Each structure stands twice: as structure tokens, then as C-alpha cells.
């Protein structure tokens, strides 16, 4: 509690200010939830895409390199 001399200087918070403050806290909370959900979806997409690219790379490494075969035949001539 404030000393008697300071009670007249510092106004009591109004109910409107308290409601606004609570609203801000709730808003920030829901913004944080939304951010985390969007980040989680991004991470899931990123890992799925990376896995797909790794599988494609492994498949490509096993494929016959036609372009390399043509380049080697030109270098011999």
C-alpha cells in the first residue's frame, strides 16, 4: 500500500484499463499459439520435403548418366 501522501498522486487503475490489459495479455497468448502452430506446420513441411529430396537424390545417383556418356564420347574425338 502506498503512503498516505502518494495516494493522491498515483491514480488507482480504472476498470477499463484493467480490462484492456487483460485483453492485451489474452491477445498476445493467442498470437503466440498461432505462431507456434504455423512454425510446427513449416517444420513438418520442411522435413517432408527434405526426405523427398534425399530419396530423389538416391534414385538419381543410381540412374544411368546419359549426359555424362555423351560428354565423354566428345572428349575422346
Question: What would a concise description of this structure say?
Answer:
This protein is an all-alpha fold. The protein is 82% helix and 0% strand.
Explain this structure to me?
With 77 residues, the chain is mostly helical. 82% of the residues lie in helices and 0% in strands. It is built from three helices and no strands. The relative contact order is 0.05.
Q: What would you call the structural class? A: mainly alpha
User: What is the beta-strand fraction?
Assistant: under 5%
Q: Approximately how much helix is present in the residues?
A: over 70%
Largest sheet, described in full?
A: none
Q: Low-confidence spans: pLDDT under 50, at least 5 residues?
A: none
As a whole number of angstroms, the C-alpha radius of gyration is 32 Å
Task: State the shape.
Answer: rod-shaped
Mean of all residue-level pLDDT scores: 83
* Number of helices, where a helix is a run of at least 4 consecutive DSSP H or I residues: 3
Give the total of beta strands: 0
Q: SSE string, helix = H, strand = E?
A: HHH
**Distance N terminus to C terminus?**
96 Å
Pick out its properties:
82% helix; 3 helices; 77 residues; mainly alpha; rod-shaped
Compile the SSE list and pairings.
Blueprint: H1 4-7, H2 15-62, H3 66-76
Amino acid at each position: 500500500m502506498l503512503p498516505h501522501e502518494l495516494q493522491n498522486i498515483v491514480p488507482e487503475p480504472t476498470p477499463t484499463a484493467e480490462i484492456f490489459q487483460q485483453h492485451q495479455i489474452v491477445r498476445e497468448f493467442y498470437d503466440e499459439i498461432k505462431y507456434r502452430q504455423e512454425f510446427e506446420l513449416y517444420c513438418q513441411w520442411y522435413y517432408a520435403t527434405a526426405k523427398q529430396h534425399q530419396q530423389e537424390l538416391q534414385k538419381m545417383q543410381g540412374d544411368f548418366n546419359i549426359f555424362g556418356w555423351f560428354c565423354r564420347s566428345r572428349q575422346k574425338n
